[in-house]
Design goal:
The complex is a heterodimer of chains A (about 350) and B (about 300). Chain A has 8 helices and 19 strands. Chain A is α+β, with helices and mostly antiparallel strands and about 350 residues long. Chain A has a 6-stranded mixed beta sheet, with helices on both faces. In chain A, strands 13-17-14-15-16 form a 5-stranded antiparallel beta sheet, with no helix packed on it. In chain A, strands 2-1-4-5 form a 4-stranded antiparallel beta sheet. Chain A is elongated. With about 300 residues, chain B is mostly helical. Chain B has 2 domains: about 60 residues, no CATH class; about 210 residues, MetI-like fold (Orthogonal Bundle), CATH 1.10.3720.10. Chain B is built from 15 helices and 2 strands. In chain B, strands 1-2 form a two-stranded antiparallel sheet. In chain B, a hairpin with a 2-residue loop joins strand 1 and strand 2. In chain B, helix 5 packs antiparallel against helix 6 and helix 6 packs antiparallel against helix 9. The chains are: A alpha+beta (about 350), B mainly alpha (about 300). Chains A and B meet through strand 6, helix 2 and helix 4 of A and helix 10 and helix 11 of B.
């Protein structure tokens, strides 16, 4: 068990803008930290630098209070699961799981004990003689996890391990993976571009864009108190509405946007003249797409709610002041003053 | 117009599906049979010739694919084995092949690996440039090579071939291996490094086993190139005890204008058949499906 820290780490490929630009962050001992961002934001590069597969241009990687920046991957006591699972195609499931133990020179009897332990945790007992090509996507993922687990690493690095699974399988894999991490308590850094995975699994989320950390916090902090317009619009589906008023962007979540008549006069709220254009029924909820002034906004209602306005006709909407978030219109940075 | 529009849309696939498919299959099989026979005929002719007596072979009325007076006979093989240096030629060829294979693997595999993995965009172009070297005809190259062989003191020794043959096997096999290495996902190499090996260890444990079909292909091609090479062997080796099969049998079994056709064919068949088996057995079995299942699903 160990904490993982990167200090002012930079990675530059050629003359391009740096892929990772002075990032500093820490994953506490036992924490499940998610690196979330759009593709090309530098999250995989950051993970690869922590793993030692990519040398940083500058800055340091610290694992368990040891600077490991110049150590090769094998000396870092980490396990990594790649997006592709990277199983050795010429080896059986058993030999795949045994691979890191053989590399360490673990005695044969001890090897078998640990392989059986890892295989039983991940439910691979009946599959040990199969080759990777005879396994389903979910089974391959579990083999990759067993191989990561078997050497009892101090850190898990996971690079979008669920992205090759179909939607149904992904939901159960999310659950399994999180329970698995909780039960073994190993520090885990998890890279994804999927906000549902990030929100559902992370103890904390670091939102990355263009090689920098935009915000780091618990899923609730990130969702409720975004640090800037990038985070506000990257998380949430549909994302936060932003309406420009003067020099400020007024931000609010679709679920807080409702007819002014519904608001209690005792609680202050901000008014918007909303023109609904289109309704989208999604089973549990309905989304109303429309405009405030020239800006597109979305309102979200539970499907059971009776709506007392009609599409195409302007209606007064409001958002409780405590749900309003304000951003500087130019920089996009959060402003804590109420205009 | 309106009546046609009211009809549910149904593409007319009956003609393309049934009649067309059978006809296309037929043509395909006919073509395959024609080319198989076309390719096999010379070999069959060679094998029949091996067992023919002189009376049979030199009678213009006889069909080449049937045995007639005095045939079949093993006399030709006996002549080849007992009255020429053929066993020595074979032995020389085997020794040269093995050494050339070893040298080629030692150079071409690391070269191909580094060209595909480490040089990036330049690797591809360098690989093609290396392959172009293979295309320079040996009839041009043997002149400068003669100097090299002389300086190394290998004139009239089969080891001159061990030195010279890698000059064309290495470029060709490097280029060949590059294709195989390209199909090996980077991930499994990095995974092996995470799992506890150095880069060299990762290549040895993870990349090379997956590239085994490529390595086998390189071995087969190197052996084949070594077997059929003629110009260098003719230029550098004159004494019978040092010759490989390709130059040995042609000098010993063509005496003036007398061709010992049957024994020549026997010499060729004895070499060709193992190579043909090597091709069919190894390549088919190993090339397919080896990297399947390494990544994704």
């Amino acid at each position: 068990m160990a904490s993982v820290e990167v200090r002012e780490i930079v990675k530059q490929f050629g003359e391009n803008a740096p892929a990772v630009d002075h990032i500093s962050l820490t994953a506490q001992d036992g924490e499940f930290l998610v690196l979330l961002g759009p593709s090309g934001c530098g999250k995989t590069t950051l993970l690869r630098m922590i793993g030692g597969l990519e040398p940083p241009t500058s800055g340091d990687v610290v694992i368990g209070n040891h600077v490991v920046t110049h150590l090769p991957p094998r000396a870092r006591r980490i396990a990594m699961v790649f997006q592709s699972y990277a199983l050795y195609p010429h080896m059986s499931v058993h030999d795949n799981i045994a691979f890191p133990l053989r590399a360490q020179g673990t005695p044969k009897a001890e090897q078998e004990k640990r392989i059986n332990w890892a295989a039983s945790i991940l439910g691979l007992d009946g599959l040990m003689k199969r080759k990777p090509r005879q396994l389903s996507g979910g089974q391959r993922q579990r083999v990759a996890l067993a191989r990561a687990l078997v050497r009892e690493p101090s850190v898990f690095l996971l690079d979008e391990p669920l992205s090759n699974l179909d939607a149904q399988r992904r939901a159960s894999a999310r659950d399994e993976l999180q329970q698995f991490q909780r039960s073994i308590g190993t520090t885990t850094i998890y890279v994804t571009h999927d906000q549902v995975e990030a929100m559902g699994m992370g103890d904390r989320i670091a939102v990355l864009n263009l090689g920098t950390v935009r915000q780091i916090g618990t899923p609730q902090e990130i969702y409720d108190d975004p640090a800037d317009t990038f985070v506000a619009t990257f998380l949430g589906s549909p994302p936060m509405n932003l309406v420009e008023r003067g020099t400020m962007l007024h931000g609010f979540r679709p679920e807080h946007f409702s007819p002014a008549a519904w608001h209690d006069a005792a609680n202050p709220f901000e008014r918007f003249s909303f023109v609904p254009h289109r309704e989208e029924y999604l089973g549990a909820e309905r989304l109303i797409y429309g405009e405030v002034g020239d800006e597109k906004v979305v309102a979200r209602f539970p499907a059971t709610t009776q709506l007392d306005f009609s599409i195409g006709h302007p209606v007064e909407f409001g958002v409780a002041t405590r749900h309003m978030r304000y951003f500087d219109a130019e920089s996009g940075v959060r402003s804590y003053e109420t205009p | 117009m309106s009546a046609a529009a009211a009809q549910p849309y149904e593409p007319d696939i009956s003609s393309t599906k049934r009649g067309g498919k059978a006809a296309r299959r037929g043509v395909l099989y006919l073509a395959a049979i024609f080319f198989s026979v076309f390719a096999a005929l010379p070999f069959a002719w060679m094998v029949f010739t091996v067992f023919k007596s002189n009376q049979d072979l030199y009678n213009g009325q006889n069909v080449p694919f049937r045995f007639n007076e005095g045939s079949p006979t093993l006399d030709n093989i006996r002549l080849l084995w007992n009255q020429t240096n053929y066993p020595t030629f074979l032995q020389n060829t085997v020794v040269v092949s093995i050494l050339v294979v070893i040298i080629t693997l030692l150079v071409a595999v690391p070269a191909a690996y580094s060209l595909t993995r480490l040089v990036g965009r330049w690797g591809e172009n360098l690989g093609i440039a290396i392959f172009l070297v293979y295309l320079i005809p040996p009839t041009l190259l043997f002149i400068p090579m003669t100097r090299v062989v002389a300086v190394l003191g290998l004139k009239n020794s089969m080891f001159s071939m061990v030195v010279v043959y890698p000059t064309f096997t290495i470029p060709f096999c490097t280029w060949l291996m590059m294709g195989f290495f390209k199909s090996v996902p980077w991930d499994i190499e990095e995974q092996a490094m995470i799992d506890g090996y150095s880069r060299v260890g990762a290549i040895w444990r993870a990349v090379l086993p997956v590239s085994l079909p490529g390595i086998l292909t390189v071995i087969v091609f190197t052996v084949a190139l070594t077997l059929h090479e003629f110009v260098y062997a003719l230029a550098f080796v004159t004494s019978s005890s040092e010759k490989p099969v390709s130059t040995g049998v042609t000098t010993e079994l063509i005496r003036g204008d007398v061709f010992f056709w049957q024994s020549l064919m026997a010499a060729a068949a004895i070499v060709a058949i193992p190579v043909a088996l090597l091709y069919t057995l190894f390549l088919d079995r190993f090339v397919a499906g080896f990297t399947l299942g390494a990544v994704k699903g």
